[in-house]
Amino acid sequence: MCRAHHRRVPEGMMDSASRTSSSRQPNYWQSEYIAAALAGDRRRAWQVVSDALDAGLSVASVYKDVLAWAQAEIGDCWADSEISVAQEHMASAVTQSVVARLYAYIESERSRGCVLLGGVEGEEHVLPAQLAADLLELEGWNVAFLGTNIPSEDFLKAIEDERPDVVGLSLTMAPDLPTAVTLIRDIRKRFGDLPIVLGGRAAAELREVAEDLDIEICDDLETFRREV
Ligand code: B12
């Protein structure tokens, strides 16, 4: 369902606790943000975020409840053919520019060890991985962020170079699952029991073999917090 940008709901503007889904009415910041993103208006999009922060929304909430929400909504708009590929790209580019600015607002001790995080070979969705990387930094992890579509051999080399405490793999597309499984097995072979966490939309599809692969599946950062 993709009607978010037509609605404007000032009530509940601070409803940051609600993890909104498309079936629910967007709150004020969500509808303002998605309108700016779909218009390709980077300045306005940042202004919305800046106003939300000034009004007391936390940085984490902006990432999760505004930006991730908007991206999911944009995906639904595209899937329902309500926007073109070009409009989706434009809106996602707006979010990418906002994320780059928002990063400066992350203030944390980074005292919880190093997570090496990246997307597997073939995976082009960098924004989910980027949001996860930034949210983990907000929670005090030191994140070495590789971006995505990393050739598996280079991923292994990065682990060797960075010597992280945890490896995070971001997987949005199910067709990339076999690549992820091969990479996980290679990490096990070379780095023994180094903790591996798989996150992203497609991660849950490996739930049944997670024990066998000796990995944690984290659909969201809350699970990461609990499990790692
Ligand atoms: C933008 C976008 C693109 C852009 C990506 C650009 C970029 N810079 O990232 C481009 C144009 C490249 C793209 C391409 C494609 N896309 Co696309 N895309 C999207 C869209 C609209 C937004 C992605 C995004 O920004 N998500 C941000 C948030 C919403 O992601 P998130 O998964 O919630 O992330 C959170 C958690 O998962 C978690 N997390 C993520 N990684 C990790 C890792 C760890 C370790 C942890 C702990 C947590 C964690 O933390 C994040 C923050 O809370 C999504 C819609 C969507 N719902 O995501 C479609 C979507 C993912 N795409 C889709 C499709 C179909 C495609 C294409 C196949 C289209 C095509 N025909 O070419 C290609 C595939 C490319 C490839 N091989 O990877 C479908 C996938 C459907 C499916 N069944 O899997 C979606 C869902 C759209 C839809 N509604 O149908 N896409």
Question: How would you portray this structure in words?
Answer:
The chain is α/β, with parallel strands linked by helices and 228 residues long. It has two domains: 4-105, Methyltransferase, Methionine Synthase (B12-binding Domains), Chain A, domain 1 (Orthogonal Bundle); 114-227, Rossmann fold, CATH 3.40.50.280. The protein contains nine helices and five strands; from the N terminus they run H-H-H-H-E-H-E-H-E-H-E-H-E-H. A five-stranded parallel β-sheet has the order 2-1-3-4-5, sandwiched between helices. Strand 4, helix 8 and strand 5 (216-218) form a beta-alpha-beta unit. Helix 1 runs antiparallel to helix 2. The model is unreliable at 6-23 (pLDDT under 50). It binds cobalamin (B12). Cobalamin (B12) is lined by residues 64, 68, 71-72, 74-76, 78-79, 88-89, 92, 96, 117, 122-129, 131-132, 135, 168, 170, 172-174, 197, 199-201, 218, 220-221, 224. This is B12-binding domain-containing protein. It comes from Persicimonas caeni.
Main attributes of the structure:
228 residues, alpha/beta, Methyltransferase, Methionine Synthase (B12-binding Domains), Chain A, domain 1, Rossmann fold, globular, binds cobalamin, metal-binding, metal ion binding, methionine synthase activity, Met_Synthase/Corrinoid
